[in-house]
Design goal:
With about 240 residues, the protein is of the alpha+beta class. The longest helix is centred in the middle third of the chain and has 20 residues. The chain starts with a helix and ends with a helix.
Amino acid sequence: MKPEGQASGNREFLEKYIPLLDFFAEVCGPEYELVLHDVSRPEASIIAIRNGQISGRTAGSTMSDYAPTFIKLIRNGGCSEDMVAHVDKTRDNRILESHTFFIKDEQGELRGMICANHDVTDLIRLHDTLHEKILMLNGLSGRSALPEKEETPAPLENIFTAENESNLDGLMDVLIEKAVSEFPTPLGAMTPEERTRFVGVLKGRHLFSMKGAVPKVARRLGVSEATVYRYLKKE
């Protein structure tokens, strides 16, 4: 933790972004949670929050589980993006499409983050309901349903637009590195059982809802894409 004086100075530097939070909260509406984080105080990083009912957090709450990994990658030079997009989940299992903007000073040092979290739970439910309805209507009209071997797209993938793909690629690296740090065994030395658990952790964090996740994980594990799919089926 930084000395109190430095932390206080960092807060003053970041408070000028609070009107920006108010602006986007007004423009985006109540389905968007807007959060301003002070990275010098990870245990109580939230300086300001709008529509905090989405995650249940308030000013003084901590950052998400993903944020420390972002911070580490940026400070180590492992991420040069100014913004990343990712999928998150609240404690009551609501799904968020999240965008994080990194606030840096003139020297390029990371000082804070603005996070915009869009609650897309109802959109995903609507997608699933419509998909099931279409399959039912196809059956009633005598059309064949989708082939058994054809996998339908994950609902979350349909939410992200094409322009987010580069950000999603960076986020996938973040999620993989975070999972790697949680396992005592290096990726190259993992047993099949450990690799299965590793893939299960990534699945639980919605990595495989993102385009290109399977080949990326396969490369990191040094296995084929078919092997990753087998691990997924075991979870």
